[in-house]
Design goal:
With about 250 residues, this protein is an alpha/beta fold. It is built from 8 helices and 7 strands. The protein has one domain: NAD(P)-binding Rossmann-like Domain (Rossmann fold), CATH 3.40.50. About 45% of the residues lie in helices and about 15% in strands. It binds NADP nicotinamide-adenine-dinucleotide phosphate (NAP).
């Protein structure tokens, strides 16, 4: 009999799911049967994604959430408890860049990126862990990091620091809560075709593709497949790891 990957009966929160990688992840988890909470600061855009998932036959609803704002995180989880009573899967995907060479990088730029890409992961994971432990679910926490956090990138010291921080966070949390049956992992994409990389010129894109072993930039779906693996039964014995989804841009 073919093996079917199913998340039937699971509630999954995907942060930053109103576009790009988060949207692809939300669609993939919904297609596997999860009820997906599509979260972003812009509730209008999140609602449009949730409606489109529902139109395709999935279960989804939007959540207004700013991962960098503790009050917003608390309010979002209050709503999740009221509406669903539990959370099985958290995908920490919300992230921003604010690039610049270190000598010209402002403290504001540093703080903004750390607040969303690292502190946001802490704030949302903390609420998720509380709820998962209370409901005794075999929870899954998956954070979208970046190969930049493993190899660095000029002009992205703030982003690389945040994404490297996520790796230490993932390993530590995995050790803390493994005994509760909750797994904690990260995925590290390389270059993915989204708004974040939309400013690249055709020449820059070609030059990048030449550095990638598989010869092309990734898609949101490429990352979503890896997230689904970690969220599903197939990934049940995997914790504290960083899954490199870079098409071979990084082969350590
Ligand atoms: P994107 O297209 O810019 O989308 C970012 C998403 O995050 C949007 O839905 C945005 O919605 C949301 N967001 C931003 N700040 C937020 C906040 N404070 N609270 C809640 N939601 C927030 O980015 P992407 O390329 O899909 O990237 C998604 C993740 O993958 C990020 O963590 C990024 O670092 C990582 N990544 C991307 C690439 C790449 O090449 N694209 C490579 C490696 C890793 P709102 O603005 O409405 O909140």
């Amino acid at each position: 009999m073919p093996h079917v990957i199913t998340l039937e009966g699971k509630v999954a929160l995907v942060t930053g799911a109103s576009q790009g990688i988060g949207e692809a992840v939300a669609r993939r988890l919904a297609a596997a049967g999860a009820t997906v909470l599509v979260a972003a600061r812009s509730e209008e855009k999140a609602a449009a994604v949730a409606a489109s998932i529902a139109e395709a036959g999935g279960a989804a609803e939007s959540v207004r959430l700013d991962v960098s704002d503790p009050a917003s995180v608390t309010a979002a989880f209050k709503g999740i408890v009221e509406r669903h009573g539990k959370l099985d899967v958290l995908v920490n995907n919300a992230g921003i860049t604010d690039d610049g060479l270190l000598l010209r990088m402002s403290k504001e730029s540093w703080d903004r990126v750390i607040a969303t890409d690292l502190t946001g992961v802490f704030l949302v994971s903390q609420e998720a862990v509380k709820l998962m432990m209370k409901k005794r679910v075999a929870g899954r926490i998956i954070t979208v990091g970046s190969v930049v956090g493993l190899m660095g990138n000029p002009g992205q010291a703030n982003y690389a620091a945040a994404k490297a921080g996520v790796v230490g966070f993932t390993m530590s949390l995995a050790r803390e809560i493994g005994s509760r049956g909750i797994t904690v992992n990260a995925v590290a994409p390389g270059y993915v075709e989204t708004a974040m990389t939309g400013a690249l010129s055709e020449d820059q894109r070609k030059a990048l593709a030449e550095k990638i072993v598989l010869g092309r930039l990734g898609t949101g779906e490429d990352v979503a497949g890896a997230v689904l693996y970690l969220a599903s039964d197939l990934g049940s014995y995997v914790t504290g790891t960083v899954l490199n989804v870079s098409g071979g841009l990084l082969i350590p």
